Amino acid sequence: MSGAALGIEIVVVFFLALFLLHRYGDFKKQQRMVLFGTLLAWYLCFLIVFILPLDVSTHKTVIFHVCEHILCSYFQSTQHVCYKPWSYIPDGIMPVFWRVVYWTSQCLTWLLLPFMQSYARSGGFSITGKIKTALIENAIYYGTYLFIFGSLLIYVAVHPQWRLSWYELQTIGITAANTWGLFLLVLLLGYGLVEIPRSYWEASRQGHLLIKTYFKVAKLMTEKADSEENLEDVMEEVRKINESIKYNHPLRKNVDTILRKCPVEYQEKMGRNMDDYEDFDDKHNTYPTERSLSKLHKQVIYAVQRHNRTRVQWQILLEQAFHLEDVAKNETSTSRQFIHSFAPPEPVGWFRRYIYTPTIEWYWECLLKQWFYRMLSVVLALFSVAVVWSECTFFSTRPVLSLFAVFIQLAERDYNYLYIEMACFITIFFLCTCVYSTVFRIRVFNYYYLASHHQTDAYSLQFSGMLFCRLTPPLCLNFLGLIHMDSAISHQAKEQTAYTSIMGSMRVLSFIANGFYIYYPMLIVILCIATYFSLGTRCLNLLGFQQFMGDEMTSDLIDEGRELLRRERRKRQRIEDGESRRREWRERYAQRDEIAARNRTSMSEMKETNYGETLNSNTNRQAKYTRGSSQTGRDSIELLQDAEALDFNAETLTDDPLQSEPGRHAGGRYLSMSSSRSRIFDDV
Q1: Disordered: where is this region (predicted)?
Q2: Directed axis angle between helix 113-121 and helix 32-60, to 10°?
Q3: Cβ atoms of 481 and 517 closer than 8 Å
Q4: Rounded Cα–Cα distance for residues 429 and 46 (Å)
Q5: Residue 357 DSSP one-character state
Q6: Which among 659, 683, 662, 661 has a CA at the least distance from the CA of 671?
Q7: How many CB atoms are located within 10 Å of the residue 527 CB?
Q8: Which residue, 209, 351, 428, 453, has fewest beta-carbon neighbours within 10 Å?
């Protein structure tokens, strides 16, 4: 059972990382190397977060061993029995596991992902060209790290008092990486602790959320127009180069590569000019170089990605705005049936047909959802207050002021390992939600932006993987400090967890362990206050970056967004009206065609019936004026089957092989081709 818990979490975390990557990345269009690097980075970070509670629970089983020993030696007559927790992991597994996971994530974030980031963003036309560009772009990046590390090594080697071993050098490197990560962690955590509860509270206010959506519509429309203009400019430059570089130019294959990255409508407009046989060596013409084509290739990839992203986001935002307007209209409905303005693009499934009916949807959207979000916001706000209090008091061990440390110690006294795991999991999950959600929300112009619905570019995906790998180790150390499981911070002689043993002892750098790691997290109070009063948003608004303020400063954009949404609603209504009219005409003409086809079928049947009756009447009429039909039929059969010639000199004509009728004269027959034994006119 102990290995089952670890195996289940490993599998579940993998599918969680795969689901998020599928939501933000594009499996069909993006490079496999980019997807694999991002998936591995996210998977390792999520794995650290989910497995750490098991490590804490396994560490607490030291109490189990002590209890078992005492029972065997002293309390043999008692009935109290200690038991292993269901998630107990045998000794020796967790240190190896943490060593592999940690060093793999560090190699990704400091070495591989920066190189892969430059490789994916390069505009080169070959693998060699992309590798060369990535090495040149990362030369300064890697050179800075090598210079700092080399300087430290020289300083340690020259200093006579310092005799550092390999383990201590390794601890110094880990401490430096965790210090950089903790500096960024406090900034992101301070924002998430306030913004997440506030976002759910604002989501419960339908009117405020609708006004904010109007603001987003106006802002996104501006960005959409800008992306379309940028794409037009880049496509114009591609058109000029496509016309200047002919079919027999050595760089023509590079131009074809650029054209394949362009949208289909632009490819059809520009063509390939394969019928032009002008000499490319003409001295009067100036041709671009391979370097300029690589730069243009990079611009085309960026422009197309940005245009597609804004187009998809525009459609999604319109759907959200229409839904919010429908909720505002249905709140005053007396029928308590949720009515949508437009029909859903997809057919209604069984869930909406039988479970999430219009009545259930009305109660959820117009009544229950608001109160649910408010209650959830209050619960998250209480968690945020507990985290802020614990961050400011976790260094105090006597008395214990950290709330999370109090909860863990109470569970430790009762040997309740399941409660320890659940408390650790909920705490670290909330901390990770605050930090990781900030990573998914922040946007650095168009340089870094995680967009859902498969619209995130390769550079942003790998940058997020780098951030996760750098933030997760200091986040876990901070969590262990909150529950007093890090002896370097709590200064208590306790058995360390497997994770802290891999991190090494921070006492090698006492000024970081006793100073920075303890007092720097207190700045989270200042950051929470700044986030609560939206100081960052106000500063960005003053600098010219439009941000939603909810006052007169953004009223123009709100009115513009409302008008844009009204225009889009009219456009969509006209489209639906046209579709309904065409559908009605098709149904009407289908009925008319069906009636006409039915009439044609009945007329043809009547004609066939009349024609058959006419034939029968003609046959009867002909039978009155001719010989017997049987005799005529037999004559015809005789003629067609080359019957034997008859002898006209016979006494009787009953020798007809077809049995001619008795008493009837068989006149008018053909003469035999054989020689007659009598005169020819004897029968006349």
Answers
A1: 604-634, 653-684
A2: 160
A3: yes
A4: 10
A5: -
A6: 683
A7: 21
A8: 351
Per the structure block, which two tokens stand in for 143? 């050179």
The Cα–Cα gap between 291 and 123 comes to 9
Specify whether the CB–CB gap between 312 and 455 falls below 8 A.
Answer: yes
Helix (H) / strand (E) element for 466: namely helix 458-482
Rounded to whole angstroms, how far apart are CA atoms 398 and 494?
15
Alpha-carbon distances of 321 from 326, 341, 561, rounded to whole Å = 9, 11, 10
User: Both ends of the chain: CA-CA distance in Å?
Assistant: 122
Three-class secondary structure of residue 263 per DSSP: coil
Q: Which residues pair with 443 in a beta bridge?
A: 449
Write down the pLDDT at residue 415.
Answer: 72
* CA neighbor of 2 nearest in space, from 92, 84, 81: 84
Q: Hey, how many other C-beta atoms are within 10 angstroms of the C-beta on 187?
A: 15
Higher pLDDT, 116 or 280: 116
Both tokens of 183, joined, read: 């500096």
Q: Please, is 564 exposed, middle or buried when counting C-beta atoms within 10 Å of its C-beta (0-12, 13-18, 19+)?
A: middle
Q: Are 48 and 474 in contact (CB under 8 A)?
A: no
Burial grade of 493 (CB within 10 A; 0-12, 13-18, 19 or more) = exposed
β-pair partners for 449: 443
Question: What is the distance of C-alpha 427 from the center of its chain?
Answer: 28
* Cβ atoms of residues 440 and 434 within 8 Å: no
Inform me whether the pLDDT recorded for 61 exceeds 80: no
Which single residue is written with the structure tokens 């050179």? Answer: 143
Burial class (CB in 10 A: 0-12, 13-18, 19+), 37: buried
User: Three-state SS for 327?
Assistant: helix
- Full DSSP string of 182-216: HHHHHHHHHHHHHHHHHHHHHHT-HHHHHHHHHHH
Long-range own/partner contacts, residues 495-498 (CB < 8 A, 24 or more apart) = 495/59, 495/62, 496/59, 497/55, 497/56, 497/58, 497/59, 497/94, 498/55, 498/58, 498/59, 498/94, 498/95, 498/97, 498/98
Tell me the three state secondary structure of residue 452. coil
Which range, 41-45, 241-245, 408-412, 496-500, has the best average confidence (pLDDT)? Answer: 41-45
Q: Which of 479, 443, 484 is nearest to 460 (CA)?
A: 443
Rg of the chain on CA atoms, in Å: 44
Residue holding tokens 């959802």?
369
448 backbone dihedrals φ, ψ, rounded to 5°: -140, 125
Return d(Cα 580, Cα 578) in angstroms, integer: 5
Residue 159 is predicted with a pLDDT of 66
CA–CA separation, 338 vs 202, rounded Å? 22
444 membership: H or E segment, kind and range: strand 443-444
If pLDDT is split at 50, 70 and 90, which confidence band does 512 have? low
Question: Strand, coil or helix: what is 448?
Answer: strand
Q: Name the DSSP class of 247.
A: T
For the record, the structure tokens of 122 come out as 């390069």
538 vs 545: CA distance, rounded Å: 9
Residues 6+ apart with CB under 8 A from 552: none
Measured distance CA(478)–CA(487) in Å, rounded: 12
Q: Are 472 and 184 in contact (CB under 8 A)?
A: no
Q: pLDDT of 368-426, one tens digit each?
A: 999 999 999 999 999 999 999 999 988 887 888 889 988 888 887 777 778 888 889 99
Closest of 478, 461, 479, 470 to residue 17, by C-alpha: 461
In degrees rounded to 5, what are phi and psi of residue 444?
A: -105, 85
- What pTM, to 2 d.p., does this model score? 0.79
